[in-house]
Amino acid sequence: MSIPVIDLRDALVPGGARRAEVAAQLREAAMASGFFYAAHHGVPAEQVAQQFALARRLLDLPPGTRQALDMRRSPTMRGFENLGAQTLDADARPDLKESFYCGMAWPEDHPYVVAGYQTYGHNQWPAEVPEAPAQCEAYIRTLLTLSRQLMQLLALSLDLPEDYFDATSDSPMVTLRMVRYPAHPEGADERTFGAGAHTDWGALTLLAQDAHGGLEVQMPDGSWVAATPVPDYFVVNLGDMIPRWTNGLYHSNPHRVRNLHSSGAPRYSIPFFYEPDYFARIEAVPGTVPPGEAPRFAPCTAGEHLQEMYRRTYGLPKKTATA
Is the pLDDT of residue 215 over 90? Predict the structure, then answer.
């Protein structure tokens, strides 16, 4: 089994000549591993390259700067993540990765910012890299446009109107993460990973990765396959909200990272996590629950789901939010 390639040419906008064809391909991928390579996605290669260059600058900043802007100092979990701060697989060692988190620049008077909801609020930017805010915000806008287009294709793949999910993205929870994985230390055991086996939490993840490789995806038969980097392609995968929305018809499969590159060089990757509006209702969409059966998942809001995932992997206290 392998990860399919989906060519998005002439499919990303309403009326595109290949829209129905690509929606059918997306359905097939979603019912298998929930992973695919996205070709001709419309994001300029130069913009992606600039983002990798920025990632290297940010993660090369001195320890004092990164400590001062640690994500745990931010109520919205923005800023630097230290090496080993997250454990995605409870049966593995702490993840061998460090990263920088940022998100959309919301106005201070936005109701979700005022309420202090997860992901809505201020970013923490290092003064040493003054171009970081504008560059990251531009990249986020580009990836958000692509995410919304993919959600429309996802709706079509479910025989729903293409705008079915549009209303859930008015004030989306999105996270841009720039990650560096040091090479595995000599003698690392089988419980050592750059990122332990996990599923992503939201709706979609759009991943740009460097040439080192190391991402592995679990197939429906339980085997693990390498998501080998392909120039100018994104790796796209469905997050845990999609099985809840589709009553388990579409899958969010585990994946992991091992940086075993023989050169000993670090691996960089840039995942963009798209989650819908904080109060978007995540429940089985029409046509996914067989007659006479109950839905497989209890309804929840996107915010409730995301809060729980942060709590589990970062050891955060449980919070309650109301509309």
Answer: yes
CA 115 vs CA 72, 75, 119, 278: distances in Å: 18, 11, 11, 11
In 3D space, the residue among 218, 233, 150 whose CA is nearest the CA of residue 2 turns out to be 218
The residue among 105 and 318 whose pLDDT is bigger is: 105
Contact assessment for residue 198 and residue 273, using Cβ atoms and an 8 Å cutoff = no
Pick 5-314's CATH classification: 2.70.70.10, 2.60.120.330, 3.40.50.11690, 3.90.1150.10: 2.60.120.330
pLDDT at residue 30 in the model: 98
pLDDT classification of 298: cutoffs 50, 70, 90: very high
Q: What does DSSP say about strands 234-238 and 300-301: parallel, antiparallel, or unpaired?
A: unpaired
Phi, psi of 128 (to 5 degrees): -70, -15
Mapping DSSP to helix (H, G, I), strand (E, B) and coil, where does residue 209 land?
A: strand
**The sheet that has 255-257: what strands, in order across it?**
195-198, 255-257, 215-218, 224-226
Give the residue extent of every domain in the chain. Answer: 5-314
